[in-house]
Design goal:
Blueprint: H1 2-19, H2 26-34, H3 39-42, E1 54-58, H4 64-73, E2 77-82, H5 84-88, H6 106-120, E3 125-130, H7 133-139, E4 145-150, H8 156-169, E5 170-178, H9 190-201, E6 205-211, E7 215-220
Parallel strand pairs: 1-2, 1-4, 2-3, 4-5
Antiparallel strand pairs: 5-7, 6-7
Helix pairs in contact: 1-4, 4-6, 7-8, 8-9
The structure holds S-adenosylmethionine (SAM).
Length: 221
């Protein structure tokens, strides 16, 4: 418990500074200081992504991890896709500290993401899209993406739809990485591992590996 509190006290300000933009919106500041985004803990996964490629982060929220994807994968073209207010209206649901128990505004999160992405974009061609993952993916040409980072609802149905679409939208050998792998039945993220395991069993992807900080990586065969 003490170790967890210590980690939170050290890691969250460092993650915020890394993102380069600290919002003065009191609700956003509170969520970002008191909910760990595990940004530096997860960043190793981006070393698997080919540099200079076409990528997508699906599920962006406030853009904390978007900055890592830009800095470390150095894409030439990248799509940042999230539903923000399109699904949730003016405020997020109560996702505990992550949304300050439902007080965080969706446009506040979007604005923070837009500023962070602009600050880290460099020469990348960037598109920031307020849309549903499935709609965005369905409209992409086939075999377009070199990689994607998937971090949305983690429900079984949604993940199955997203991963099935990504099977067509990634290039052969394209890499799909993501967050929140959990194989404990009953955990609220269990559906994600169920869906990915199902797609792996059907042969559309091969497992690259399961990693610390709930990271996972698969590649199209
Ligand atoms: C865990 S947060 C993403 C965090 C971000 N990737 C990071 O590492 O900082 C999950 C996000 O997925 C978004 N989301 C949920 N369902 C979605 C869908 N169907 N299409 C696009 N985004 C979705 C939510 O709005 C939320 O912002």
């Amino acid at each position: 418990m003490v170790r967890k509190a210590f980690k939170l006290a050290i890691n969250t300000p460092l993650d915020l500074l890394r993102a380069g933009i600290v919002s003065l919106d009191p609700v956003l500041l509170r969520t970002e200081l008191f909910a760990s985004h595990r940004v530096r803990e997860r960043q190793f996964i981006t070393d698997m992504l080919p540099k200079g490629g076409v990528g997508a982060e699906i599920g962006v929220f406030t853009g904390m991890f978007s900055t890592v994807l830009l800095d470390r994968a150095c894409p030439r073209e990248i799509y940042f896709v999230d539903v923000w207010w399109k699904e949730f209206g003016p405020r997020y649901p109560d996702w505990g500290r992550y949304t300050d128990r439902g007080r965080l505004g969706t446009k506040t999160a979007y604005r923070a993401a837009a500023k962070r992405i602009a600050k880290h974009a460099g020469d990348a061609r960037v598109e920031l899209l307020v849309d549903y993952s499935a709609k965005f993916l369905a409209e992409l040409p086939d075999h377009y993406l070199d990689w994607a980072y998937l971090d949305t609802s983690h429900s079984y149905e949604q993940t199955l739809e997203e991963v099935s679409l990504l099977q067509k939208k990634l290039k052969p050998g394209g890499i799909l990485v993501g967050d929140d792998w959990n194989e404990s039945p009953g955990h609220h993220h269990y559906g994600l591992s169920q869906a990915v395991n199902e797609v792996l069993a059907s042969g559309g992807f091969r497992l690259i590996g399961l990693y610390p900080s709930k990271q996972w990586a698969i590649a199209t065969s």
